[in-house]
């Protein structure tokens, strides 16, 4: 007997990826298009429709029972709309309705990309086996999602766990979100590089001024680069500890480009966490690097679809 499938969409500022996924999280068929994020909203939607067109035209499509979408945000799960910061042509864009126009009356679940990656890490990655977890993406921005009581907790709009906009510096720099001293304003890749440059670090001969270059300099012993990563780690630790104190998570899984710095980030982060996670019920909190890689968004979107799809022929909603 053929098991049922779900369709997954992973929508970001660079690419729109789609896949047909089985109940074990295996990607059976893929499609991808560039986002063309600076074009108008209909052009971007055209790329989504092309990806969906490849999926719906495939032989396994009749076995698809639900659609999951993980999108750059903000998203509004309750309304089915998206307003990705990095896709200016989409503001309150009715993505769920437009996807349904292609896929028919299948159930559609929309969540933010940080929530999707969290779902993937809980289902198959570094948070597997943990009933209460925080997933994080530390990259151009800082996002996240929550697993509570063994289940994905996207919240009413699909943005729950967005740790990047917890304020950890009450008098800190203004954040583009409108608040001050957000985790993202300190710990995202561009802000790690910005701080290092402001404190006197200079790129090498190749001119690379990204956080990855700062990480290489820190690994080589540059004190300014080290300090910039330590400040980022402190901000992350404060945000993680606050989240753990609020909802009693026991693990934080961190992915994204900045996490690729490895020990340059994780060593000061674990050290700083001891200073912030001080109450007895959060002292066992651990941090771990994400393990799902570039497929995390698709696997997480599939996990979201499994939550809403009919539980027949082996589609196991409890698996996510």
TrEMBL record:
Gene3D superfamilies cross-referenced by the UniProt entry: 3.30.420.40
SUPFAM superfamilies in alphabetical order: Actin-like ATPase domain
InterPro entries hit by this protein: ATPase_NBD, ROK, ROK_cs
UniProt-listed Pfam families: ROK (PF00480)
PANTHER family assigned to the protein according to its UniProt record, in alphabetical order: N-ACETYLMANNOSAMINE KINASE, ROK (REPRESSOR, ORF, KINASE) FAMILY
Similarity remark: Belongs to the ROK (NagC/XylR) family.
Protein's recorded name: ROK family protein
């Amino acid at each position: 007997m053929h098991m049922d499938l779900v369709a997954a969409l992973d929508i970001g500022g660079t690419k729109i990826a789609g896949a047909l996924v089985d109940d074990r999280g295996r990607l059976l068929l893929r499609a991808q298009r560039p986002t063309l994020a600076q074009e108008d909203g209909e052009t971007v939607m055209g790329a989504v429709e092309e990806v969906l067109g490849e999926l719906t035209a495939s032989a396994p499509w009749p076995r698809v029972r639900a659609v999951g979408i993980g999108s750059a945000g903000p998203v509004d799960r309750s309304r089915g709309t998206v307003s990705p910061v990095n896709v200016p042509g989409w503001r309150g864009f009715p993505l769920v309705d437009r996807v349904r126009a292609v896929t028919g009356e299948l159930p559609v679940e929309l969540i933010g990309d940080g929530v999707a990656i969290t779902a993937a890490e809980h289902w198959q990655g570094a948070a597997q086996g943990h009933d209460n977890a925080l997933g994080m993406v530390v990259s151009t921005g800082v996002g996240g999602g929550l697993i509570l009581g063994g289940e994905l907790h996207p919240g009413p709009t699909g943005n729950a766990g967005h740790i990047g906009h917890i304020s950890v510096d009450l008098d800190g720099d203004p954040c583009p979100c409108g608040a001050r001293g957000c985790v993202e304003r300190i710990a995202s890749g561009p802000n790690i590089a910005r701080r290092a440059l402001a404190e006197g670090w200079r790129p090498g001969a190749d001119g690379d001024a990204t956080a990855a270059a700062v990480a290489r300099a820190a690994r080589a012993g540059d004190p300014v680069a080290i300090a910039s990563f330590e400040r980022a780690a402190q901000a992350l630790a404060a945000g993680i500890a606050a989240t753990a104190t609020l909802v009693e998570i026991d693990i934080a899984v961190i992915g994204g480009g900045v996490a690729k710095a490895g020990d340059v980030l994780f060593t000061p982060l674990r050290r700083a966490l001891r200073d912030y996670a001080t109450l007895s019920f959060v002292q066992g909190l651990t941090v771990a690097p994400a393990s799902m890689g570039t497929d995390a968004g698709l696997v997480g979107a599939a996990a979201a679809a499994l939550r809403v799809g009919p539980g027949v022929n082996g589609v196991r909603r409890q698996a996510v």
